[in-house]
Amino acid sequence: MKDESNNRKPGPNDPCWCGSGKKYKKCHHGNEAGVPQPAPRKDPLLLNTAERDAMRKACRVNAELMDYIRDYVKAGITTREIDTLIHQWTTSRGHIPATLGYRGFPASLCTSPNQVVCHGVPGDYRLKDGDIINLDLTTIVEGWHGDQSETLFVGPVSDEAVALTQCSFDCMWAAIDVIKPYSRVIEIGRAISAIAKARGFSVVKEYQGHGIGRVFHQKPHIPHFPDAYHGQQILEPGMCFTIEPMINAGTWKTVLDRRDNWTVYTADGRLSAQFEHTILMTETGPEVLTVTKRGPQRGHKFISPVAAA
Fold first, then answer.
1. 217 three-class SS
2. Which of 12, 67, 79, 186 makes the best surface tag, with the fewest CB within 10 Å?
3. d(CA 260, CA 305)
């Protein structure tokens, strides 16, 4: 309702008195007789208070799942057995593994060891000491998606594996720390690329972060390199998205396994590491929704486990 206590007519560029959020000249200017105006349309990418809380809940459940599965990542277990544990934990609590059946994907998580960059299909591969493996988990909770990944060590690993894993983790947090309300997406890619280049590693370009909410993958696109096209997207309060840099020891180029049309390898067969968090942009800055209680926290320094006596 129009505020009758202030008789000053709004200027053309003032907010309209009706509360639409539009400028006066684009709304009720010339329409003071009260002809009905169309209600402003809600941007589906901008979450309201209740929707933000729903995303927080989904991500909290997903973080609990990550904390559950980390104890099982040991030499001797197969990636299919990890998948079974993920499926049982998720469904027994009334939730849905988002990857299962998504565009035909056959499992409840992605398992990507060593030279696998992403989208690894669980199977007969048995983990052994010296492996690194990325577990990418997404859980649907009451219609909302929580999404994250971690790279874990299996027994003692090489110095290169430690350095690469540290780089991916640091790149993710640097990208989170550089953004604020109304930042452009390109700032994420700049932060990640600077760290990776300084440490002698490369950033995968073919696979990116993404918007998330009721839909698994949606806008905005989040490239992890300074992409001039998608990089111009503005990160508005209410947007939810992932930051998930895939960092390779050698070339950034990748190869898709045509046997399953999912598993992605480094083109040169060298190691790849990845970390991922789901981020909610709020009015005061980015809120990380998928922080675990038992996993690596901001500023964590990775070391190789000591070999068993």
1. coil
2. 12
3. 33
What helix, strand, coil percent values describe the chain, rounded to 5?
A: 25, 25, 50
Contacts of 149 (CB under 8 A, 6+ apart): 110, 134, 135, 136, 137, 244, 274, 275, 276
- What's at 156, amino acid-wise? P
Q: State the sign of the Cα–Cα–Cα–Cα dihedral 12, 17, 18, 20.
A: positive
**What pTM did the predictor assign?**
0.86
What is the Cα–Cα distance from 289 to 299, expressed in whole angstroms?
17
Q: CA-CA distance, 3 to 9, in Å (whole number)?
A: 11
Q: Which domains does the chain have, with CATH numbers?
A: 1-41 (no CATH), 49-288 (3.90.230.10)
Higher pLDDT, 216 or 33: 216
DSSP annotation of 213: S
With vertex at residue 251, the alpha carbon angle to CA 199 and CA 271, rounded to the nearest 5 degrees, is: 75
- Structure confidence at residue 110 (pLDDT): 98
Q: What are phi and psi of 80, to 5 degrees?
A: -65, -35
Reported as a single tens digit per residue, the pLDDT across 234-293 is 999 999 999 999 999 999 999 999 999 999 999 999 999 999 999 999 999 999 999 999
